[in-house]
Structures are given as C-alpha cells and as structure tokens.
Specification:
The protein is an alpha/beta fold and 150 residues long. It contains 5 helices and 5 strands; from the N terminus they run βαβαβαβαβα.
C-alpha cells in the first residue's frame, strides 16, 4: 500500500517553531512521502456565536473541497468518531486501494473541528480517542501512525 500519495491537509498553520520541527523530523524518518498543506484559517471573533462558528466551518469546508480530487480517499479526523486502532485504519486504506484511489488525504480541521458536511463527505472518519489534541501536533502523529500501519 505504499504506492499511495499522502496529503495531510490542515486548517491553520503551525504557529510554533517546534511544531514545524517535529513534522520535519517525522517526515525525514518516514518511509512514506508525505505532503503537508495548510489552508488559511478563518478569522474567529472573540466569543463567537454558534451561527458564526457554523459559518466559519462551512467556509473552511469550501476551501477543503477545492483541494480534493475524485481520486482521493478522504480520512477526516474527528474526536467524536469511534476510536479505531491501526488495524481499522489499515482496512480502510486497503479499501481505498480496492477502489482505485491514488491519494489518501487526512483532514485536520481548525480549533472548532470541521463542518458536518465536510465530515460526512469523507470516506473514513478517524478518532484518536476522547483526548483533545492540539491540531498543530496532529500531522506528525498521523505520520507516525502511517509508518506503523503501512
């Protein structure tokens, strides 16, 4: 399954140098070529209303949609999804291969996650459990997971 292209698509850029350093180290030791794309995070007003949050998530979802291709197998990260171990992910990636997909795209939403529409359009939803992880640290975690899964 190492013939897939991998893209980790995040909403928002890493703000700390150590986040960039961790991903750089992870990519260097990876046996899988991984591309990383940071989309611009929408401006969030202080103490946003639910309607403002939904609007922001929809806008970010539209930006995500512009990057995706029909040949992509999309994996959305969502804390509310059922936890799956590496074998669950491996089965999903095998399914992607069987469907003729050529690129696996991991979606990492902003601090408010991603819209229901965006999550529902994904081929697979992945959760790392009920722990809340900083969105900026997820790319190297995904990279490490792929190294032990593929």
């Amino acid at each position: 399954m190492k013939d897939f292209k991998i893209l980790i698509l995040t909403v928002g850029s890493p703000s700390k140098a150590y986040h960039k350093d961790i991903m750089s180290i992870s990519k260097k030791k990876s046996n899988i070529p991984i591309d990383l794309l940071h989309l611009k995070k929408e401006q969030i007003p202080p103490d946003p209303s639910d309607a403002q949050i939904l609007s922001i998530l929809e806008s970010e979802g539209d930006a995500i949609k512009k990057v995706l291709k029909k040949s992509d197998y999309v994996v959305a990260l969502d804390i509310g999804a059922r936890f799956r171990d590496k074998n669950g992910l491996k089965k999903a990636l095998q399914s992607a291969k069987n469907l003729g997909k050529t690129r696996i795209v991991f979606l990492v939403g902003s601090s408010y996650g991603m819209s229901e529409k965006t999550k529902n359009s994904a081929d697979f939803i992945l959760s790392f459990g009920k722990i809340t992880l900083n969105h900026q640290i997820l790319p190297p975690i995904i990279s490490e997971l792929l190294n032990i899964t593929l």
